[in-house]
Every structure is written in C-alpha cells, then in structure tokens.
Amino acid sequence: MAYIVGLIVLLVLTGVYVIFLNRTAKRKNERSGMNSKVISMESHRRAKHSSGEQLCSSCKKKNGKLIFYAQDNGTVVGLCKDCKAQAKKRDMLPL
Fold first, then answer.
1. Do residues 14 and 39 share a domain?
2. Whole domain around residue 85: which residue ranges?
3. Closest by alpha carbon to 68, among 59, 80, 60?
4. N-term to C-term CA, the chain
5. What is the total count of domains within the chain?
6. How far apart are CA 92 and CA 12, in angstroms?
7. How many CA atoms lie within 13 A of 3 on its CB side?
8. How far, in Å, CA of 11 to CA of 56, rounded?
9. Same structural domain for residues 55 and 90?
C-alpha cells in the first residue's frame, strides 16, 4: 500500500515539475521578443510592394495595375491593360 501511495506522490510531483517548466519557458520566450525568429505580419504588410511596381510579363513596363491570366500550360502571367489584347488572342483565362 505504501508503494502505491509513494508512486502516486511521485507522479503528482512530476506533473507539477512539468507545468513549472512550461510556464518558465513561456515567460522566457516573451521576454526575448526581440530575439525571436517570428516576425509580425503587420510589419510584413506595411513593407509589401504595391502592385503598381510590378512589371508586365509581356512588355516589361511598369504600367500600373496588372491583370493576372492563366496560360494553357498552367503558368500565371501578369499583363497590363495595354497587353490585354494579347491575352484575348491567346484565349487566356483571367484569375
């Protein structure tokens, strides 16, 4: 009987120790926020390039907003409004 009680006490103490380790690890990670490899998505959204800076896949000019089309082989191309006629000639599907 004493063996079972000792085993139960040992299991409870092990559980308390594991919980203690998890909590201290979380606090350590919160304190080292600057050293974290995870970046904030807000900073990523602010740094994202606008679509006006992208080049047309056909004429390679920065002509403002692009319209994306799927070619027959499955690749995606971004065409400006000037090259829209080429997409219609090739029967490309707009995305």
1. yes
2. 50-94
3. 80
4. 72
5. 2
6. 66
7. 0
8. 65
9. yes
Q: Which pTM value belongs to this model?
A: 0.45
pLDDT tens sequence for the chain (95 residues): 888 999 999 999 999 999 988 888 777 666 555 566 777 777 667 766 554 578 888 888 887 788 899 988 889 999 988 888 888 898 888 88
DSSP collapsed to 3 states, the chain: CHHHHHHHHHHHHHHHHHHHHHHHHHHHHHHCCCCCCCCCHHHHHHHCCCHHHCCCCCCCCCCCCCEEEECCCCCEEEECCCCHHHHHHCCCEEC
> 11 and 35: one domain?
yes
Instruction: Classify burial at 80, counting beta carbons within 10 Å of its beta carbon; exposed 0-12, middle 13-18, buried 19 or more.
Output: buried
